[in-house]
Amino acid sequence: MESREVSLSQRPVGMPKDDDFAVASVEVPDPQDGQVQVRNVCMSVDPYMRGRMVDRKSYVPPFQIGETLNGGAIGKVIRSRNEDFAEGDYVQSNYGWREAFTVEAKALTKLGDLTAPASAYLGVLGMPGMTAYVGLLEVGALKDGETVFVSGAAGAVGSIVGQIAKLKDCRVIGSAGNADKVSWLTNDLGFDYAFDYHGGDLLNQLREGAPDGLDVYFDNVGGDHLQAALFHMRPFGRLPLCGAISMYNDTEPRPGPNNLTMAIGLGLTLRGFIVSHFSHLNEQFRSDMETWVSSGEIKYQETILDGIDRAAEAFIGLFTGANTGKMIVNLTG
Amino acid sequence: MESREVSLSQRPVGMPKDDDFAVASVEVPDPQDGQVQVRNVCMSVDPYMRGRMVDRKSYVPPFQIGETLNGGAIGKVIRSRNEDFAEGDYVQSNYGWREAFTVEAKALTKLGDLTAPASAYLGVLGMPGMTAYVGLLEVGALKDGETVFVSGAAGAVGSIVGQIAKLKDCRVIGSAGNADKVSWLTNDLGFDYAFDYHGGDLLNQLREGAPDGLDVYFDNVGGDHLQAALFHMRPFGRLPLCGAISMYNDTEPRPGPNNLTMAIGLGLTLRGFIVSHFSHLNEQFRSDMETWVSSGEIKYQETILDGIDRAAEAFIGLFTGANTGKMIVNLTG
């Protein structure tokens, strides 16, 4: 059995390009005792993967050139030599960027009964949804009725942040990269105010959307967005630092916000986090989010590209704004 | 009765200069019913006052040109027409930068029995000591045995931060502005490692002093210090943002740390605060700190200038490193 797999042919410099990636065919070994063979249904591309393409120490080790990349994937068991897994089981793994694989059972999480299409477990019901949930409620310590600004609001994380905040009776402001996304946020997701960050001054947009200032700024973007949000925070505001997608392709370190000292007088908290810091909340998240998605209280959208050959394109698209909601590579074709 | 008082003759631009300040003699009115007349024993100059000399909205209103400045002072009641205050009582007030004044009693805090010289209630037992206490223990959430770096470590706040951390069995690293201060930190206050920040690369000094990284960075300085500390933080480190004295005389906004995104993967918390956010802990602070000072577990030093004519010089000295420990203006002469 063969699997086509994606690796780095070279480390991207600045914006990743198609020829930084290579697809090759690999033989998938038969499962040995205790092992399971999986065919992926879909795989995830996520902005954090850009950091792993740089050769430096970080919270996850860097990808190596010529080695198959990895990342979130949902697959179906096709052969099992482990009693906990049966043919047809849906499993979640970190063995993305490939069509199929054989692993020890402990590398797999059985999804059980799905309450949504499998791909949702890479988005709203998976890592990005969990990131929004813990980032807003735990790190951001959101209180009912507050005013929340989320950047990258039409992305996989941002779109869920805004909707959770609406469930908590908050006023929600979002920034996104084009008019269609802005319209989706306000017309479909219930954001109170959204704007295209290309279209004008961030500070004026924030004043318009949140005349009384911000209690929480959920940062997916970094750079100018963080600086503008700092200028507009209310006393004791919280800023969960989730990502900085505007800076991931920088080739030189970029200066930080020039107004960070405002945090002193206002008593602001800037707190970085990654989702794995909160894995003790996995079950609570899945229960809450499956309820909200099933009831329609939280909606989601996916941008789906078909086939492993388009995985690099999907990944690059994260940085050009090609996705609305979660970017997914479908591997069932 | 006359009081000499200090006002701004003009707003300082960059480093404050002598002629930004003016001293004038003012008639002190007799106390009316309910009022108290006070002669100041000593007054405080503090770095935060620099911010109030700029005409902008902040957590305290700006000083006005030609109006007597204010700030912390300890005085003695000389005439009282309020039953709660008697001649000879020591009182704390915000009526510094003057020799004497008459006010409503509610503007005064009676100090009761002093367990240290009056000036200590402007330093280790006053606002700077309280700032160190709540900043390290509440904002920094210090745990026994952690590694702490404090900048401006020979200042009124920093010198107390380091000693509280030593009481909590922490490893303590401090930066200061000259060799005498560095020697005071390690030889007299028990710091594990201290260095002159003029003398070389901050990052290498931190690697030397804290080879395993920092759990808490108490920031009094901002700028390069904050950036270097961020590079050296351990996972889940906390950074109480207390001050940014290196930036207070900037005439243009200065870029922030270029490595703030490190907070994401490491789960760092940067939290700004001012001491008044924690006034519910005033009594606990005074009790703890009086105990520590009386037992000699916490030592303090003062740099004392005599007379209201030297108040401006004392203030300017905060930015040139003229003080070791608390800068005090003695007004008993």
What composes the largest sheet of chain A? 7 strands, mixed
Overall average pLDDT of chain A: 97
Say what the CATH topology of the largest domain in chain A is. Answer: Quinone Oxidoreductase, Chain A, domain 1
- Strand content bin of chain A: 25-35%
Q: What is the ordering of alpha helices and beta strands of chain A?
A: EEEHEEEEHEHEHEHEHEHEHEHE
Biggest interface goes to: A-B, 34 and 34 residues
Distance between the termini of chain A: 16 Å
Q: How would you describe this protein?
A:
The structure is a homodimer of 333-residue chains. With 333 residues, the first copy, chain A, is of the alpha/beta class. Chain A folds into 2 domains: 2-123 and 301-330, Medium-chain alcohol dehydrogenases, catalytic domain (Quinone Oxidoreductase, Chain A, domain 1); 127-276, Rossmann fold (3-Layer(aba) Sandwich). Chain A is built from 9 helices and 15 strands. In chain A, strands 3, 4, 5, 6, 7, 14 and 15 form a 7-stranded mixed β-sheet that branches. In chain A, strand 11, helix 6 (223-231) and strand 12 (233-241) form a beta-alpha-beta unit. The radius of gyration of chain A is 20 Å and the shape is globular.
